[in-house]
Amino acid sequence: MRKLLYLLFLFLFLPAKGQKVLHLTLGECIQYAETNNPTLQSGELGVNISEIQLRQAQLKQYPTVSAGIGQNFGYSHGSGNFTLGGDYDIRAAVDIFRGLSIRNSIKQSKLQVNQSQLQLEETKNQIRVEVIRSYLTILMNEEMLSYQRTVMNTSRQQITEGEQRYKVGQILESDFLLLKAQYYSDSINIENTEIAIENEYSELRDLLNLNREDQLVVVVPDSLQLAAAMTVPELSVVLQQSLDYLPVLKIKKNNVELAEYDLKIAKGSYYPTISASAGVGTGYHTAYGNNANGLQSGLYNNLSESAGISINIPIYQQGSVRNNVKIKNMEVKQAELSLEDAEADLIREIEEYHFNVRKAYNNYTLSELQKDAYYANFMAYSQQFKYGTITTVDLLQQQTNYLNILNNFMQNKYNFLLQKKVLDVYTGQTINL
């Protein structure tokens, strides 16, 4: 029997072969997600695509080179000759001037690379916030679980004492049943919290894109780390750091520059285009048959070279260039207005968010005092119940009050911590706990 229990323990609690157990802090969870999250991996591919497009734009500065090969075979019934011939050439062409559109396209492509990187950073911020929320929810429920177990231990003692007092007639059967119901309620609370922890672990595993066979354990920060995080920075500092860092604002600024390059490229169509080309070619033609004399030519004898410059001057294009320039001017103005709106909205949002963080901190500090006070009151009532000076209803009322305040404290504590860490994301700080 003991051997069977030992084997059952190994099966349930020891990791399977090849299974990893990851103990991760908040910062390590974020780093893991940034490397393995599929959404972010897709964003990395977007950056790679824009880099390839930049290289393609840069290559347009250089000549294009092409070669041609032609081979033919024929037969003439009149002369009875077979003919064999071939033509070969190689050509190169380069744009000398195209209204500066090539140079502007290169600069625009560099901005597109930067834009892709900023969009990836914005997506990273969204994933960071989700990881923070999931991680802190696990911590909150695990801390709640510790308190709930303490309360359940107290309920267990109350049942033991209540049973003895019921047997000697000091309390009614209804009082004893109330104590048993409270103990059962405390047990259910613990089970529900454990289920909530399991569900949140599943959410966090998905964000980190962990293998199904791997286990995840979040590292609980010590009290000093938590205390250091429970502060509210000054609004002026938050505003400055947010405006300097947030990718969403930089994306809007990039949109203005991208629109300006679109305008420059459109204006380039007003100017002539100049291109140069050069080539070399040769061929041969040979006849075999009854009248083939003098019908042979060699590759060297047919060698030819060519070079030239062409200029294309736009004279009338049905107003398409002028109208396109007008449209691009308007798009530049639209991008500038969008940037102004985004900056004003961002300042307003950060100010409001900072105000909410301050409120969350006040709620947390107040509920912490209430939690300590109600716990002391609950312990005092437990002693009074032990000595028979209060009723069961009085005791359970104080226990309910304490549990309500405890839940409120947990919500306020981790709500503030979540908002503070999200604020760290918005200001470009290193996220850890």
Give short descriptive properties of this protein:
alpha+beta; 10 helices; 433 residues; 2 domains; 6 strands; Outer membrane efflux proteins (OEP); elongated; disordered N terminus; four-stranded antiparallel β-sheet; 67% helix
Question: Any overview of this molecule?
Answer:
With 433 residues, the chain is of the alpha+beta class. The protein folds into two domains: 19-61 and 100-271 and 319-426, Outer membrane efflux proteins (OEP), CATH 1.20.1600; 66-98 and 275-313, no CATH class. Helix content is 67%, strand content 15%. It contains ten helices and six strands, in the order αβααββααβαααββαα. It has helices at residues 2-13, 26-36, 38-59, 101-167, 173-208, 223-229, 235-245, 247-267, 320-386, 392-426, and strands at 21-24, 64-76, 81-98, 215-218, 273-288, 304-312. It has a four-stranded antiparallel sheet, with no helix packed on it. It has a two-stranded parallel sheet with strand order 1-4. Helix 8 runs antiparallel to helix 9. The longest helix has 67 residues, at 101-167. It is elongated. The chain starts with a helix and ends in a 7-residue tail after the last helix.
